[in-house]
Write a structure and sequence with these properties.
The protein has 10 helices and 22 strands. It has 426 residues and is α/β, with parallel strands linked by helices. The protein folds into 2 domains: 234 residues, 3-Layer(bba) Sandwich (FAD/NAD(P)-binding domain); 177 residues, FAD/NAD(P)-binding domain.
């Protein structure tokens, strides 16, 4: 008996519940997609629980993006359902403004995620017809396991959950600073340095531009090809223009027109080492998920030679990089702007709806609903506008079942009351 008391004493969590049954869905991730799904469910009157591994909402935006970041698309394509951006926001809100908007969004819809709780596994239990979602809860240095049991599971962990760290020969011997773009804040600390930026997506281009603006000398690695488009064409957002054209014209024709317009505005980008892919920008985005670069000034720095475009990397050695063309560059630091990936396969025990790459197998607009109450929000490769459309569809789907079941439940309760009343009259 004494031993038992000692055991209870040592384990302060002994009386803490280790699992709970959730009335409604579990939403994994409190980024824009998770928040949008939560807000839409709230409107349908469906209760939910949001679980988030970080200690804040929109952790990608708050903790893993650089200071000068602005939305690349006009604000009307980036606002979440049911609450527009404040009217005084500029056409392209800054990162800070976007975060403030998301915070007011969460407050407006009274969304209170469970922070510091990372989902470790989720599996559907066929016998009970419930999802079993296991999490690791961090309280200071203390970690405890918890389990949610629920009928619906909404995956909103994002297309950019983990950073891609390439395995390049000799990188461990390089000796200087090596960071991923998700840890890059500003070029301030690279002043006067020669920096190798690996990758030429939107991150690589913007990090290179920022380094120039802070008197560093960036060399940007372009190992294959890239579509660079102007952010605006003759005063109109390129994205908006493409969306309008897509209403009337086939995708291949819109792609051709976009490339002609890009050439008129930017000229031939190939002569600066930026080879264009053979597939058009929209088709490439749809089929491979590769986002075109929307230029916001890097191209000008490439033309002027402030950003040095270099081919792929052969290997690193101490303080140096050797390129595939045999050229060797002395460098001080490396920024890996090598992209991101989904982390769904690492925790979701399911192989029918989600593919090995962590995206739903079915393409937009089909990839939001799986079987047995499984949903995906924010995996459309269409940024924030895709996340919003997923959220509305999911909430409507769950809301319909929820209301129907509640109606049935009420009917049954009234019938039982009536039976009780009529019985008590005898
Ligand atoms: C630098 C950068 C700039 C971008 N700019 C734009 C833009 O201008 N316009 C646009 O439309 N898109 C942009 N994007 C794309 C961006 O992914 C979306 O805008 C948006 O953040 C997607 O929201 P999300 O909620 O789907 O994913 P995220 O914002 O990534 O949120 C997912 C959340 O899930 C949490 N999570 C992950 N795994 C777990 C787990 N196992 N357990 C619990 N929680 C977990 C994460 O901590 C995170 O908070 C940008 C992306 C990057 C990297
Ligand atoms: N303001 C904005 O809106 C903004 C800003 C930044 C990012 N974003 C978004 O965030 C998402 C991620 O963008 P991102 O630029 O971080 O990633 P990304 O678009 O996936 O680009 C990754 C880049 O890294 C290169 N790369 C990967 N491994 C490499 C290696 N071993 N050697 C050389 N190059 C390598 C890729 O080359 P290959 O093409 O040859 O594979 C590609 O150029 C995108 O959706 C993007 O639009 C938006």
């Amino acid at each position: 008996m004494e031993n038992l008391f000692r055991l209870v004493d040592q384990d302060q969590d002994f009386f803490q519940p280790k699992w709970t049954l959730v009335n409604g869905p579990i939403i994994v991730g409190a980024g824009p997609s998770g928040l949008a799904a939560a807000a839409c469910l709230k409107e349908q009157g469906v209760p939910f629980v949001v679980v988030e591994r970080a200690d804040c909402i929109a952790s990608l935006w708050q903790k893993r993006t650089y200071d000068r970041l602005k939305l690349h698309l006009p604000k009307q394509f980036c606002q979440l359902p049911k609450l527009p951006f404040p009217e005084d926001y500029p056409e392209y809100p800054t990162k800070r403004q976007f975060i403030e908007y998301l915070e007011s969004y969460a407050k407006h819809f009274d969304i209170n995620p469970k922070f510091n709780e990372c989902v470790q596994s989720a599996r559907y239990d066929e016998t009970s017809g419930f999802w079993r979602v296991k999490t690791l809860v961090s309280t200071g240095s203390n970690k405890t396991e918890f389990e949610y049991i629920c009928r619906w599971l909404i995956v909103a962990t994002g297309e950019n959950a983990e950073s891609v760290m390439p395995d390049i020969e000799g990188l461990s011997e390089f000796g200087g600073d090596v960071i991923h773009a998700c840890d890059y804040k500003s070029g301030e600390k690279f002043k006067g340095q020669k920096v190798l930026v690996v990758g030429c997506g939107n991150s690589g281009m913007e990090v290179s531009l920022d380094l120039c603006n802070h008197n560093a000398s960036p060399s940007m690695v372009v190992r294959s090809s890239v579509h660079v488009l102007p952010r605006e064409i003759f005063g109109k957002s390129t994205f908006e223009l493409a969306v309008s054209m897509m209403k009337w014209l086939p995708l291949w024709l819109v792609d051709k027109l976009m490339l002609i317009l890009a050439w008129l505005v930017l000229g031939n980008t190939e002569k600066y080492g930026l080879k264009r892919p053979s597939t058009g920008p929209l088709e490439l985005k749809n089929t491979k998920g590769k986002t075109p670069v929307l230029d916001i000034g890097a191209l000008e720095k490439i033309r002027s030679g402030d950003i040095n475009v270099v081919p792929g990397i052969k290997r690193f050695s101490r303080g140096q990089v050797e390129l595939v063309n045999g050229e060797k560059l002395e460098i001080d630091s490396v920024v890996l702007a090598t992209g991101y990936r989904s982390n769904v396969p690492s925790w979701l025990e399911e192989g029918e709806f989600f593919g090995k790459n962590g995206y739903p197998k079915a393409q937009f607009p089909q990839g939001w609903k799986g079987k047995a109450g499984l949903y995906a929000a924010g995996f459309t490769r269409r940024g924030l506008s895709g996340a919003s459309s997923d959220a509305m569809r999911i909430a409507h789907d769950i809301g319909t079942v929820w209301k129907e079941e509640n109606k049935q439940l009420k009917k049954r309760t009234i019938a039982r009351h009536r039976r009780c009343i009529s019985l008590s009259q005898f």
